[in-house]
């Protein structure tokens, strides 16, 4: 679990360090993100693939919480927050869970 926790910290720090200046330069990501998908190139393919992965992430978090209202809220945060949210979420869970099975399935 220590390796997971270290990985979560590294992911969060790297993404936060990259995201802050990008957000300052271009605060609205939606036109660029969906514009690339609409254009039909490789950047659009990557963005669409990423969007699907975000949906899977949100669905997993929601499922893990039994589709409760809190789980739906966390799932929405996972979908919108991407790896920055997931790194914090998994860091917290890894401190509460005894092994990877419990972390991934809540059992």
Distance between the termini: 16 Å
| Count of the domains | 1
* Class of secondary structure makeup: mainly alpha
Mean pLDDT: 96
Backbone CA Rg: 15 Å
Helix content percent band: over 70%
Which stretches are poorly predicted, pLDDT < 50 over at least 5 residues? Answer: none
- The SSE order reads HHHHH
Q: What is the count of DSSP helices, taking H or I runs of 4+ residues?
A: 5
**Beta-strand proportion:** under 5%
Shape type: globular
Number of strands: 0
Main pleated sheet: none
Any key phrases for this structure?
107 residues; mainly alpha; 5 helices
Written overview of the protein:
With 107 residues, the chain is mainly α. It has one domain (2-17, 41-105). Helix content is 86%, strand content 0%. It contains five helices and no strands. It has helices at 2-25, 29-39, 42-64, 69-96, 100-105. Helix 1 packs across helix 4 (69-96) and helix 2 (29-39) packs across helix 3 (42-64). The longest helix is centred in the last third of the chain and has 28 residues, at 69-96. The chain is globular, with a radius of gyration of 15 Å. The two termini are 16 Å apart.
């Amino acid at each position: 679990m220590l390796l997971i926790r270290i990985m979560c910290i590294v992911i969060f720090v790297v993404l936060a360090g990259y995201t802050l200046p990008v957000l300052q330069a271009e605060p609205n990501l939606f036109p660029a993100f969906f514009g690339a998908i609409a254009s039909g190139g490789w950047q659009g393919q990557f963005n669409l693939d990423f969007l699907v992965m975000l949906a899977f992430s949100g669905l997993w978090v929601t499922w893990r919480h039994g589709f409760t209202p809190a789980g739906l809220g966390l799932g929405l945060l996972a979908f919108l927050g991407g790896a920055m949210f997931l790194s914090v979420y998994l860091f917290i869970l890894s401190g509460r869970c005894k092994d990877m099975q419990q972390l991934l399935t809540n059992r």
